[in-house]
Amino acid sequence: MSAALRVMLLASALTGCGQSGADATATASSPTAGDFAGDLNALGTEPFWAIKIRADGLTFSRPGVEDVKSANPGPVIENDRATWTVADGPTPFKLTLTKGDCSDGMSDRHYAMNAVLVFADKTMYGCAATPASIAAQPAP
Q1: Residue 125: which of 45, 5, 37, 29 has the closest Cα?
Q2: pLDDT at residue 94 above 60?
Q3: What digits encode the pLDDT tens for the residues 63-77?
């Protein structure tokens, strides 16, 4: 079934429930921005790295290196994926978060998103979640 046909069927079904066809079309085609809103922490192991995503900026941390803070350019969202690109400054990088279960491989913690960090011609992998969901789990 084509995406256009699914939207039309959803629109007609929701119209019968009191929603307009325009509301149904917006719902069916909108990216999942809410999943990537608010504070998020991404981290990886081997090598260790972390990026804190906050409304007022991004903080990139690595052991033995001073943290680098950047303005938050906001994510580009496509379906179940969000990408932050920091092109300027001393530490350009691109971080992509994708919805899906993730394990850091070193602890019993589980995360709601997979993370891919492209930095200095390297691609590193990790996980991401809200700070609250990370804090609610057992310490590593």
Answers
A1: 45
A2: yes
A3: 999 999 999 999 999
Nearest-angstrom CA–CA distance, 109 and 47: 18
Spatial distance between the Cα atoms of 132 and 99, rounded to a whole number of angstroms: 17
Q: Are the C-beta atoms of 44 and 125 separated by less than 8 Å?
A: yes
> Is 21:7 a contact under the CB 8 Å cutoff?
no
Q: Could you tell me which residue, 81 or 15, shows the higher pLDDT?
A: 81
The reported pTM is 0.74
Buried b (16+ CB within 10 A) or exposed e, 4-15: eeebeebbeebe
Contact 98, 80 (CB under 8 A): yes
Q: Using the 8-state DSSP alphabet, how is residue 88 labeled?
A: S
Cβ–Cβ < 8 Å for 83, 59: no
